[in-house]
Specification:
With 110 residues, the chain is mainly alpha-helical. Helix content is 65%, strand content 0%.
């Protein structure tokens, strides 16, 4: 395969992925250069646990977890395995809330 064909294949592969990013995120990716593209993508991908907004959402959930623990409240979840040591907020309930908080932070530009 020729170098140009490989580059074209990579561009096509990332085209759909990059369509969901806003201009600011795309500029950040472009300004970081080729060698840091993966890191830039990781930081702008809201589904990545290393994304700064996702990290803030996780911090908020840690506060909720502490409050629930303080009051001995466990949020029901079908994902629970009924084994000891599970978090107060668990499974799909946790991840849905994490996604919703991340979305709010993105909308608010935090």
């Amino acid at each position: 395969m020729k170098k140009d064909d490989i580059i074209l294949a990579l561009v096509k592969d990332y085209e759909n992925y990059l369509e969901d990013f806003n201009v600011e995120d795309l500029e950040k990716i472009a300004n970081n250069g080729v060698f840091t593209l993966a890191r830039a993508l990781e930081e702008t991908d809201l589904n990545n646990a290393n994304n700064p907004l996702r990290q803030k959402a996780i911090s908020v959930l840690d506060l909720f977890e502490s409050l629930l623990n303080k009051h001995n409240i466990t949020i029901p979840s079908e994902d629970r395995e009924r084994e000891g040591g599970e978090s107060r907020l668990y499974g799909v309930e946790y991840y849905n809330l994490e996604d919703e908080i991340t979305d709010i932070l993105k909308r608010e530009g935090k």
